[in-house]
Design brief:
This protein is mainly alpha-helical. It has 40 helices and 2 strands.
């Protein structure tokens, strides 16, 4: 409110000492009041600060404040204020302090967003929330830095330094003695703090796990072995949703930590007991808020390679009856959430079994496994029944779109893993008639497609360098659209006649005034922006959507030419893919480079439009004259595209995209071949590095120029140079396909001109010289040589003069 607002004194807002007539409190006054000797003033001050922080994360103050509020509060020392309050012995003080810390480091919006994306393909690999590496300055180690120096760079590490874990376990133990109704919220806030600290990094997750007193207390009190009917208001010695989620975040940091968690605390037994109890108390399913989180935790364990056999043994006696009970009790919000987690758990189980079969089909190792495809095959009818149920329900209060997304993904995974190929056509027919085709005509499907026009990745205004938060996002349609396209692709691969006879996606998404078409053009502009940008974690789903969409449209066009804009999008997409998407990068390269019809399309016309130079020839230093003519350019181009298949292998290898030797294919687990995730791999939310450098078409040239790549044999150097020249020449001739938009003119010229630095035995070689002359004339015609900026930095090189 305005300081000059006319507020009556009775509103209890006038406590400014010398200015009692001024309305409200300043932040400075709230800080001062929080250290008051009067208990009520301290409680009011801390509670007010807590509410301010919570609302600041929602963006409510953004319009009224010139600078973001959260970073300013952290800079002012609010963390120390909270930590001091947590050391108090007075319940009302330390409970509010816990709430205040939870509101500061764990915005509710962040967790809501991740819960929305968790059931999407690849959405279960949640990002770490890690700031940049701590700079030591003149200190030798982090231990030499003061608390303030640590806080300035990494707030979560500062909490570890402040022994927050030990204080939390003390307070949790102390609150056990207090009246149940007063401690529910503080206990849940304590877990919000622990969850955010675990999200920081694998190192912090392990550090929490090794805090034995804390972990023992949490498991004993909130995931107990003995199940007792939950009494309203009781949290201790009962299963707690937040405790299960906390374990899930720990387990998501890798197979090793997941195994240690299961092994130390016997979580397989505990989770099974809770699952059995939920089925036995079927009448209370609609009030069971912990069951969906329990299933979500079990899913993460299976994706990490654990507890699949234990779950498989429960399918006939527990899981199938549970599914049927849930179907009978629809529509209900909690029941729909349970069904979503059951379906995604089935999806994980299918992935696990498919991976196991692929691993052992050509191996002499012992391939015995308790759970096999016979367990999965029996789930098909159940999955399809749940999918059909989503078409019947109309209650807007339940998460129908999320449930449909889970069903689409699970059915696609089932078709990929189906071991009895003879049954595939009949299963595809059932899916098409009972779920897939009806879903295309739903009003909600059309609404989701219209939602692509809304920006879904927006930079958070209250993010702090030392406390990164998720990108704020609108409700994104891409989870649903990805699963729809993925299933379409698989159906087309099984029944190839459908892509040309039905054209499901073209009729759905490429209609007149389609928002998808507008979105495609907008994404092309974003992907080809020459401005260096960090790729938001959420944008990975848009990348998957673009590739799946183009793949489907290509199949539906069949004999028709795919518009050039799609190839430009795919090329531009390569340098925007996040680390881990090796599979998608390889598939894009294969899609583009093996489509010779595109490269040959209108070749004569396109090359004729490039009147490269007015001179008829150029002379080399050897006085050998090289004539330039349209026919010669055409011959060079045609000679280059003949090498496209070998260029695919070359670039796949130098970009390290060979999926047979890579362990970081996060897309593979849902898109194609299935590989085990590497324990040390997690995407970072704020410092998301891309997989491939924008200068990737120039291959290893920059390494040759800077002597990073040392090759003695001239023949190998020549192969590297010729492969690069052929590919870049193709791109330059094909209407400067994406190069001119992504790279600066100086970079494009320097990358090619640097070949002259490698010696006359290289640049005078006939094949190399042909291309170099063609490039120089091409650059001259575009007036590129006159626009070179020699004082700017060059991508992948130090300076122009280097």
């Amino acid at each position: 409110m305005s300081r000059m607002a006319d507020i009556p004194v009775t509103a209890a807002l006038h406590h400014h000492g010398e200015e009692p007539e001024a309305a409200g409190y300043t932040l400075e006054e709230l800080f001062h009041l929080s250290r008051s000797t009067i208990l009520q003033q301290r409680v009011i001050a801390l509670q007010t600060l807590s509410n301010i922080i919570r609302q600041a994360h929602t963006g409510i103050y953004d319009r009224d404040l010139q600078l973001p509020l959260i970073p300013k509060l952290i800079e002012a020392g609010i963390l120390f204020l909270i930590r001091w309050a947590m050391d108090e012995q007075i319940e009302s003080i330390y409970m509010i302090a816990i709430e205040c810390l939870a509101n500061l480091i764990a915005p509710k919006k962040d967790e809501e967003i991740l819960s929305q994306t968790m059931h999407w393909p690849c959405g279960y690999y949640e990002p770490t929330l890690t700031p940049a590496d701590i700079q030591l300055g003149d200190k030798k180690s982090e231990s030499d830095l003061t608390d303030i120096e640590i806080l300035e760079q990494d707030l979560i590490k500062c909490l570890f330094r402040m022994n927050v874990l030990k204080r939390l376990v003390y307070l949790l133990d102390r609150m056990k003695l207090l009246p149940s109704l007063t401690i529910i919220i503080p206990v849940k806030h304590s877990f919000h703090i622990l969850i955010r600290m675990a999200r920081h990094s694998m190192t912090c997750a392990n550090q929490i796990f090794e805090e034995r007193q804390l972990m023992d207390f949490i498991i004993k009190q909130f995931i107990p072995e003995i199940i007792t009917p939950n009494e309203e208001g009781h949290v201790y010695e009962h299963s707690l949703q937040e405790a299960l989620k906390f374990c899930r975040i720990l387990a998501s940091h890798g197979s090793t930590l997941a195994f240690n968690l299961i092994n130390r605390y016997g979580l397989n037994e505990r989770l099974r007991n809770h699952l059995v109890a939920a089925v036995n108390l079927s009448s209370s399913l609609q009030d069971n808020q912990t069951l969906s989180e329990l299933l979500s935790l079990w899913r993460v364990f299976i994706l990490q390679g654990h507890m699949a056999n234990e779950f498989g043994s429960l399918i006939p006696t527990i899981i199938i009856p549970l599914c049927r009970m849930c179907i009978q009790q629809m529509p209900n919000m909690i029941i729909s959430q349970i069904l979503i987690q059951l379906i995604t758990l089935f999806d994980a189980l299918i992935i696990y079994v498919t991976k196991f079969i692929l691993k052992h089909q050509n191996s002499s190792e012992d391939s015995t496994n308790v759970i096999n495809w016979s367990h999965i095959d029996g789930l098909f009818d159940l999955i399809l029944t749940i999918a059909k149920q989503t078409m019947i329900e109309t209650d807007e209060k339940i998460e129908l779109d999320a449930l449909r997304t889970a069903c689409l993904s699970c059915l696609a995974s089932f078709l990929i893993g189906q071991q009895l190929l003879v049954y595939l056509p009949s299963k595809v027919k059932l899916i098409r008639s009972q779920f897939f085709e009806p879903i295309l005509h739903l009003k909600s499907t059309k609404q989701l497609m219209e939602n692509v026009k809304f920006e879904t990745t927006i930079a958070p205004k209250n993010a702090s360098v030392n406390l990164p938060t998720l990108t704020q996002t609108n409700i994104s349609p891409f989870g649903f659209l990805i699963t729809l396209l993925r299933l379409t692709n698989i159906i087309y691969q099984i029944d190839k006649s459908l892509s040309t006879s039905n054209k499901f996606i073209s009729q759905l998404m490429l209609t007149k005034d389609s928002e998808i078409v507008v979105y495609i053009k907008k994404m092309l502009n974003k992907l080809t922006s020459s401005v260096t940008r960090k790729i938001p974690w959420f944008e990975q789903f848009e990348h998957i959507f673009l590739f799946q969409f183009i793949q489907v449209i290509n199949q539906e066009k069949s004999t028709e030419d795919l518009p050039s804009i799609y190839y430009e999008i795919l090329f531009s997409l390569l340098s925007s893919l996040l680390k881990g998407y090796h599979y998608l990068a390889q598939e894009i390269l294969k899609f583009v480079l093996f489509d010779l019809s595109f490269w040959k399309r209108s070749n004569e016309t396109e090359l004729a439009d490039l009147s490269l130079i007015t001179n008829e020839s150029l002379c080399l230093a050897s006085n050998e004259s090289i004539k330039i003519s349209p026919s010669h350019r055409t011959i060079l181009y045609e000679r280059a595209i003949e090498h496209l298949p070998s260029l695919y292998t070359y670039y796949k290898n130098i970009l390290h995209l060979n999926r047979s030797s890579i362990d970081l294919n996060i897309c593979d687990i849902h898109f194609g071949n299935l590989f085990q995730m590497d324990d040390s791999f997690k995407l970072n939310i704020q410092y998301s590095d891309t997989l491939i450098d924008p200068t990737w078409p120039y291959g290893l040239l920059s390494s040759l120029y800077t002597n990073v790549l040392s090759i003695v044999e001239n023949e190998k150097r020549l192969d590297i140079i010729l492969n690069t020249l052929r590919f870049v020449y193709i791109l330059e001739m094909k209407n400067n396909l994406f190069l001119s938009k992504v790279l600066t003119k100086t970079t494009r010229f320097s990358m090619i001109a640097g070949i002259y630095l490698l010696g006359s035995d290289i640049f005078l070689e006939k094949d190399v010289a042909d291309y170099l002359v063609a490039f120089l004339n091409c650059f001259n015609e575009q007036h590129l040589l006159q626009r070179i900026e020699t004082r700017t930095n060059i991508q992948s090189l130090m300076t122009f003069f280097d």
